[in-house]
Amino acid sequence: MSTAPISPAPRSTDSTSTTPEPTALPVTAVTCLEDRALVERSTVLDLSAGVHRLRLGPVGALAVDRTLHAELTADHRATVLDVRLVRSWTPRGPQPPTDDDSPLRRRAHALEEERAGLDRRRDRLRTRLDLLGRLAADLLREIAEGVGFGESERDRWARELDRVDDDRDTCGEELRTAEARLTEISSELGAVARAMDLADDEPVELVGHVELTLETDAAGPVGVRLSHLTPCALWRPAYRAVLDGDALTLETDAIVWQRTGEDWSDVRLTLSTARSALATDPPRLGEDRLTLKDRSAAERRTVDVELREEEIATLGPAPVLGLPGVDDGGETRVLRAPGPVTVAGDGRAHRVPLSSFTTAPRHEYACSPELSPLVTQVVRFDNGSGHALLAGPVDLLRGGGFTGRGTLDFTAPGAPVELAFGSRDDHRVVRETEESRDTTGLSQRTVVTRTVRLHLSRFSAPGEQGERVVVVRERIPVSEVSAVEVQLRKDACSPAPDTVDADGIARWDVPLPPGGRRTVTLVYELSASAKVTGI
Helix/strand/coil (H, E, C) string of 6-29? Predict the structure, then answer.
């Protein structure tokens, strides 16, 4: 058996190294789950025949050991004998300080930078002084030789000597200033170093590597792919709806956070709603005990009723327990980024585009005066993204401006979607209610008559034309017992509702011209027998 350090470069035959240099193992694909990520790495190694123990990495120290898996991808006769993850504490190398570092560390870095600049300046000044000294010596030798030959250039010699002396004085003063500043910096750096020793220790970093042992029958390239789970990574869906005239564009994005200890650079990103942490938890079962008892004489003589508020909802997925914001309809959904993605391991939110489609929505100006006096612009369209829209926030933009933020519920492909783009400030609705109570003579039935008046008005700018249809909805109680009857008095309504559904929601399509006003009146009766109480 021989041990050889391996790299993607030319083959190595050195078998004496027991701690080979690590071979780079970049991240090539990531599957981001609800609260963790499946990281895939691949590389090609040029190996000789024999048994090799390789050191690959570095990799994130948060990798889960039991999920580490290695396989060979190239068509080469080789066998994986062992793969494991090893970690070691390594002091961090010198790096420029960041905003998260202490003021002491930032001050020390600034002083080191200033000292390095002063050192370079001091060297330049010393070199210049040396050149000026040689120039003065050459000038004095020239004067001595000229006097010996009987030459007399007193003015030129005096001028040259004065210029050299001035340059030497200026350069000497600058050198003394630089050296004095260097002395101050050295003293301050010593004080800062002592304070840092007392305040904090030099941090160390936990680094992980993969030790892979494999056996090859022949020399040649061997493709290796490793995968493992890692925590500290999650994603959530987010949307952006842009309403421009009669066209609506819905953009689907993924907000990805990760602090796994390494950056994901140009990786194939897959987003999944799988919940590996909850896959093995069986559903909890509880007792549901039913008991029967006889009614008393008073209960047989009277029927106690009460008004109950009930939310109207369609059949849909059950709410997701745990982390909010991921609703996949009870089935694992997988989304893929259209191109390579880079996500830094800084723990911050990174927006990754997934898909976008444009459609012609159906517009509606809706109002439910019992709940709100505002008229809201609602658009409805079908999901044409080609994939399920998971529950998440949606940014609403209309006419080139941001109008607010809403929530998009889980929507299957091709299913209808409804979005509200905020209220219209040029509409106003006022609601008035009246109630009268009467009792008939023979049957002693109680009749409650309720009248609801809705006053709608539209404020328009000068020159505005065209009617606008406002859909008004008002609810009517629905009886669940035969002793109580609810009847709509269409003859007293003005106008009569266009439709009344099985849930008791009355609807009017009210056209409003510019500056117009309309009043809608709804009248209904509740009739109960004498033995009914609670109305």
Answer: CCCCCCCCCCCCCCCCCECCCEEE
**204: helix, coil or strand?**
strand
Note the residue count of the chain. 535
What pLDDT sits at residue 315? 44
Give the pLDDT of residue 4. Answer: 37
Give the integer Cα–Cα distance in Å for 509 and 483: 33
Q: Could you give the CA distance from residue 58 to residue 155 in angstroms, rounded to a whole number?
A: 73
Q: Which run of H or of E encompasses 420?
A: strand 416-423
In one letter, which amino acid is 415? A
CA angle 511, 512, 514 (to 5 degrees): 145
Is the omega angle on the peptide bond into residue 282 within 30 degrees of 0, that is, cis? no
Among 485, 478, 510, 487, smallest CA distance to 497 is for: 510
- Residue 224 CB: number of other CB atoms within 10 A? 25
Rounded distance between C-alpha atoms, residue 447 and residue 437, angstroms: 6
Name the residue with tokens 């489609």.
Answer: 357
Two structure tokens written together for 152: 């007399």
**Cis amide prior to 495 (ω within 30 degrees):** yes
Q: How many CB atoms lie within 10 A of CB 120?
A: 11
Segments making up each domain of the chain, as ranges: 27-92+205-230, 103-199, 234-276+327-420, 427-533
The order of strands in the sheet holding 50-59 is 50-59, 204-216, 78-91
The mean per-residue pLDDT over the stretch 319-327 comes to 53
34, amino acid identity: E
Q: Is-contact 310 249, C-beta < 8 A?
A: no
Residue by residue, what is the 3-state secondary structure of 397-431? EECCEEEEEEEECCECCCCEEEEEEEECCCEEEEE
- The C-alpha atoms of residue 321 and residue 277 are separated, in whole angstroms, by 12
Would you say 240 and 253 are in contact if contact means Cβ atoms under 8 Å apart?
Answer: yes
Q: In the prediction, which pLDDT does 40 show?
A: 94
Residue 9, pLDDT > 80, answer no
Three-class SS of residue 170?
Answer: helix
Q: What are phi and psi of 139, to 5 degrees?
A: -65, -40
Write down the pLDDT at residue 270.
Answer: 95
Give the pLDDT score at 281.
Answer: 61
Distance CA 385, CA 355 (A): 7
* Structure-token match 């159906």, residue found: 362
CA Rg value for the chain: 41
Residue range 254-270, pLDDT digits in tens = 999 999 989 999 999 99
Q: DSSP 3-state helix, strand, coil percentages of the chain (rounded to 5)?
A: 20, 40, 40
pLDDT at 366 over 90: yes
- CATH number for the segment(s) 103-199: 1.10.287
